[in-house]
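Fold it.
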Amino acid sequence: MEFVYLSREQDNYKKQAALLLQENFKSYEKSDVALSEMDELLDSEIICIVLIKENEVIGMIGGEPTYSGNVWELHPLVIKKAYQHQGIGSKLLAYFEKEVHSRGGMTIYLGSDDEDDLTSLSNRDIYENLYYHLENIKNKNNHPFSFYQKNGYKIVGVVPDANGYGKPDIMMAKRIGTINK
């Protein structure tokens, strides 16, 4: 397997990565939307890394700097279904973290949507007793927040109705380094 920094010239890999988005995220079901997202990911400020096995894209991770480069937003992390639950996501995440650290990043954050009733935060009004709900979150059906926790990320907040009533976006972050003063 090989990590490759994706560029606009790598059209074959770009199309394969767009297909990964389509197959794994509802918001990218249409090919033009997935390809448009890939164009955005290939902006000069953004890191876009694909993992290649035998000339096939089996995973992708992207992110962009915010807060003057101190903080990076991770978006997206996607693994081909046949390769999920084999440590590929953790490898991509670790590689991305090292790259962000080398560019002076201190923290990586992400939002992990729950549009499909996968956690105890969904399908309810969590504004009432918000911190209680966050502290007692349960993973009901393989929501990615558990994957990120296993990789050192902490839940730092939630946007309760980000995707409609009872469909929250779970905010997570991890400190990966420090800034020299």
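The mean pLDDT is 94.
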